[in-house]
Amino acid sequence: MGKRLFDIVVSALALALLSPLLLLIALAIRLDSAGPVFFRQQRIGRHGRPFRIHKFRTMVADAPERGPAVTVGRDPRITRIGHRLRDARLDELPQLIDVLKGDMSLVGPRPEVPRYVAHYPAALRERVLAVRPGITDPASLEHLDEAALLDAAADPEREYIEVILPKKLAAQAAYAARATLLSDFGVLLRTVRLLISR
């Protein structure tokens, strides 16, 4: 209950304080390329329940038809403003809406698309999906160079499924087993420092 109340208060306050920035980003996206401001995609949430995540659109509108599900390095499908948003992680800010709705938490395992959740080992799947997915978590902070690593791989999607995903799942399961409100606050502080440094 304390975690959910914390999520509601912080996400509502953040949306209010960041509203001018969110509007500027939305305007920049509309001026930069054709298509919607938001990118919405089905992800798997707590207890395996699907939901649609909100992100600022950073790719061309028909990106899913023009390449793989994983984003590799300086992917040519990424728009000019999209590169800047991704580098600063600002494309994730609309997920504050998902936190307010209850689909996500501020801190928790990053939610995956169904095709990658299908590769979760049974034991880890149960542990990772036992908690609400989050905007940030220790595993995602440890894999900030993921796109660059995939860019160097001969088969990016195979590299993600066989090498990166297992490491992230192990870290996420460990987080889910020991997470507290205090540890979540620490992860949020690390994330904010990272955003500021970028």
From TrEMBL:
What is the protein's name according to its record? Sugar transferase
> Matching InterPro entries, A to Z?
Bact_transf (IPR003362)
Concerning Pfam families, the annotation shows: Bac_transf
Q: What molecular functions are annotated in GO for this chain?
A: transferase activity
Q: Which organism is it from?
A: Pseudaquabacterium terrae
Bacterial sugar transferase domain: residues covered: 3-196
Q: Which domain of life does the UniProt lineage start with? A: Bacteria
Q: Which keywords label this protein?
A: Transferase
Assigned protein family = Belongs to the bacterial sugar transferase family.
